[in-house]
Request: fold
Amino acid sequence: MTEHATASPHTASTLKALIIRLHGYIGLMVGPFILFAALTGTLYALTPALEKAIYHEALTTDPTESTADVAPAPLAEQIAAAQAYLGDDRAPSAIRPAPEPGTTTRVMFNDPSLEGGEHRAIFIDPTSLAVRGDLTVYGTSGVLPLRRFIDQLHRNLMQGDIGRLYSELAASWLWLAALGGLAIWAFSPSPRVDAGKQTRTAKRLRTRRRHSLLGLVLLIGLLALSATGMTWSKWAGANFFTLLKAGGWGTPRVSLDLGAPSATNAHADHQAAHTQTALFDAGDADRVLAAARHAGLDAGKIELRVPGPGQAWKVREIDRSWPSQVDEVAVNPHTFAVIDQVRFVDYPLPAKLTRWGIDAHMGVLFGLPNQLLLAALGVGIIVMVCWGYVMWWRRRQPNAGQALWPLLRRLPPATLITLGVIALGLGVAMPVMGVSLLVLLAIDGLRGDKRAAASEAASGSR
Reply:
C-alpha cells in the first residue's frame, strides 16, 4: 500500500514531464508545417469573396443582355453554345445549370491537359447564350483558379502526393499538440509574474500564459480542424474511410450501371470516348433535368453528369450549405426514368457528420460566418505557434528540458506498455504520425547520447 502510494505521484510527475517534453518537440519540429497549413488555410477561407469579385464576369450574366423576367434557354441550346465556342461537337462531362437568375450555366468538358478532378468550364449566359468565361474548375465545389491554387498550396505544397505528407503531418499532430497543451495548463498552471518585470524569464512566462489561454480558446476548433483535415490525407484518410465502409457508414452512391458491354481491345477507351460523343444528344439534358426535378431534387445548385457507354445519367444536388442538399438520382438515358436514388436524410449518421465536418472545414457549410470563423481560427494558430517559438528562443539553453528516453525508462512497466500500445494503434491508424514519432524518438536518443558524452568528457577533464 505504501509502495503504491509513493509510486503513483512519481509516475504522475514523470508523465507530466513527458507530456511537456513531447509538446515542445511537436511545437519545434511540426510547428512549421502547422504554421504553413494555418496560413494557407486562412487564405483559402477568404477566397470565396475574392473569387466573386475577380471572376464576376464569368459568374454573372450581362444585365444589358439578360433580364430576370426572361426565361432561360433550354439546356440543349446552352450546351450547343458552348460547343460552338469550342469549335467541335464533343460531349460535355457535366452541366451545372444557372442556380439562380443573374448567374451563368457551367458546361464542363474533360481536357487531357488538366489534372484529376479538373474540368474546362464554359460559362454561358442562360438567356442570351453569350459565352461569359472559359476557366478551369475543380471538384464538387467547382472552385475557380485562385482558390484552386491556394488549395494546392494548403493541401500538398503543389507537389502532388509527396507534398500531401506535409499536410497529413500537420493534421496528425495538431490534435495531440492541442490536448497536450490542455494537460500542461491543467497540471502546471502558469505562475503569476509581476507585470513590471522585464527579465527574459518574466517575458517568457507572460508569453507562455498568453499561448496557453489562446490554446484554450481555440481548443475545440483545433480538434475539429485536425479531425476533418485528416479526411483528405493519403494514409490516415484512407484508413478512416475504410473503417466507415467496413462499418456500413460510408456515403451511399447511386448505381449508374446499365450493363456496360465489355471492351477487349487496346483501343477500347478511345472508342468509348467516340461512342459517348456519337450517342450524346444535348436535348436529353433537359429531359434528364426534368426527371430529376420530378424525383424531388429541388436545390438551385445541381449537376448533370453525362453518362459513358452502358451508364445512366447522374444528377446530384451540390448545395453543401446549411441545410445540406446533396441528394442524387440515376436517370436511364433511353427511357428517362429514375432507376436509383439516394437521399441525404437516409445517410448513416457517421456519413452525415463526415459531410458536415468536411464542408465546415472548407468554409461552405454556413457561408460567410463559417469563413470568418475559419480565418480567425487560422490567425489564432499562427499567433500561437509564433508565441511558442518566442518562448523557445527566450529559453534556448543547450540542456534545457528532459529527454524522452530517460523519462520513459522511469515509468512502471504497465504504464510503459499501455503507452506503447496506444502509440502503436495511433501509428497504424495514422502512419505519417507513426513514422514521424519514430524519427522524433531517434533524434531524442541521439541528443541524449550527445549529452551523455559531453557530460562524461566534462567529468574526465576535472
